[in-house]
Specification:
The protein is an alpha+beta fold and 404 residues long. 50% of the residues lie in helices and 13% in strands. It has 3 domains: 9-135, Nucleotidyltransferase, domain 5 (2-Layer Sandwich), CATH 3.30.420.40; 147-234, no CATH class; 241-403, no CATH class.
């Protein structure tokens, strides 16, 4: 494995030098595999313990205590634990942090990996995580506040119900079609729903359709209730200002804006807007060599949920006349400052113009929409970090985010 060689040295226990101990953890719902490692400059890393324990943070605390006893380290000596982002979420992180143990969550897509064929076992994975901790071969996952995490879970729960409703609509449409009834107008309007309710079928078929429609009504009522609650959350002082700014963009309303805020967290941790776009998996790849240029699709790394929301927002942007502002958009921008509105309007005009330009030059629709979504992410970063305008060399004001 090719890894950079650097580590931090601490001086403790009667002037003896110890390198910071790192504990890689391969965690599952059934067990934790731990590996305590000490990096050694110019030599093989020292491993002070590899063990599989019960899925309980107290077992990790006990493991650390045994390592301290084995090496004769003082109680003040600190260890650093790390595990890959996965099914446990932030639970283990919060438990270890509360116990006074430093912990990080590693983003899997940023971890250094072994070259060539890899034999995958829990022990090897724990050792790899420990090596990444020792040499910095990873990026940490952002840890949201308790409030943001709770709101995030609520929003995702609402979106799960939305997917359930979508599947139910498909089932109802397929059922009606199988029995010779096809609606020719716009589907899932009030007229379409009234048409479905008036269908006359054989008794068992009619009972099946009625059950489908009852489930549809129940899901619709739930989503309306969820949307109302989301509006109440968005009106809280901690979110209201930023949501108002994001809603000045075309395609972004309360639900999308709140999701962007609670899932992205601190936007200033991204140096540029294009880095934020790459974090969402919207950056295109490239595999070129010499004169052979091969452009790839977007990476699809990072936050799948936010990427899908931005693609949906880009779909809304890529419709309508360039420069046109609907009454709804004007209402959303009403209470915002002139600078914020001007920045959002520049973004809306630029994104629509780019979409139509790409379509005219033969780009596929989905490719153009993904490109618009990536640039929208850059403008969102600019809005959330206050980089809403810069002066170009020619002296005119242009969006800062678009220069990434």
């Amino acid at each position: 494995m090719d890894l950079p060689v650097y580590c931090v040295i601490e001086k403790i226990n009667n002037n003896r030098n110890y390198r910071i101990q790192k504990i890689g953890m391969d965690v599952h719902s059934t067990n934790y595999t731990l590996c305590a490692m000490e990096p050694v400059l110019g030599a093989e890393d020292r491993i002070y313990g590899e063990i599989q324990v019960a899925p309980d943070y107290k077992a990790i605390v006990a493991f650390i205590a045994s390592i301290k006893m084995k090496l004769g380290l003082s109680d003040k000596y600190s260890f650093e634990c790390g595990y890959e982002a996965g099914c446990l979420g932030y639970t283990l992180y919060n438990q270890l942090t509360s116990a006074g143990i430093k912990c990080v969550i590693l983003a899997p897509t940023t971890m250094l990996t072994q070259r060539g064929k890899r034999i995958k076992t829990d022990r090897r994975d724990a050792r790899l995580i420990a090596q990444c901790l020792c040499y910095g071969g990873y990026n940490p996952v952002y840890i949201p506040t308790g409030e943001d995490d709770a709101v995030k879970e609520y929003l995702r729960m609402r979106d799960d119900h939305k997917l359930t409703l979508k599947k139910l609509k498909q089932q109802i449409g397929a059922f009606a079609l199988r029995h010779g009834h096809q609606y020719t107008g716009t589907k899932w309007t009030d007229k379409h729903i009234a048409w479905l309710r008036k269908l006359e079928l054989d008794p068992i078929y009619q009972e099946t359709l009625n059950e489908y429609m009852a489930s549809y009504d129940e899901q619709e009522a739930k989503i309306l209730r969820f949307n109302k609650r989301i509006e109440e959350i968005a009106a809280q002082s901690s979110y209201k200002e930023n949501i108002g700014k994001l809603c000045c963009f075309l395609g972004i309303r309360t639900h999308t804006a709140l999701s962007l805020i609670v899932e992205s967290g601190d936007f200033t941790r991204f140096a540029k807007g294009n880095i934020y776009g790459a974090y969402l998996g919207l950056a295109p790849g490239e595999h070129s060599s010499a004169d052979d240029v091969n452009r790839l699709g977007i990476s699809k790394a990072g936050n799948t949920h936010l990427r899908r929301l931005l693609i949906e927002a880009a779909n809304g942007i890529c419709k309508g006349r360039i420069g046109h502002k609907s009454k709804e958009l004007c209402a959303r921008q009403k209470e915002q400052s002139a600078d914020v509105i001007a920045y959002a309007d520049k973004a809306n005009i630029r994104l629509r113009s780019r979409y139509y330009k790409m379509i005219r030059h033969g780009k596929k629709k989905n490719v153009a929409i993904a490109a618009v979504a990536r640039e929208l992410a850059c403008f969102i970063w600019g809005m959330m970090t206050g980089n809403i305008s810069v002066v170009s060399r020619a002296g005119s004001s242009v969006p800062a985010a678009s220069q990434g």
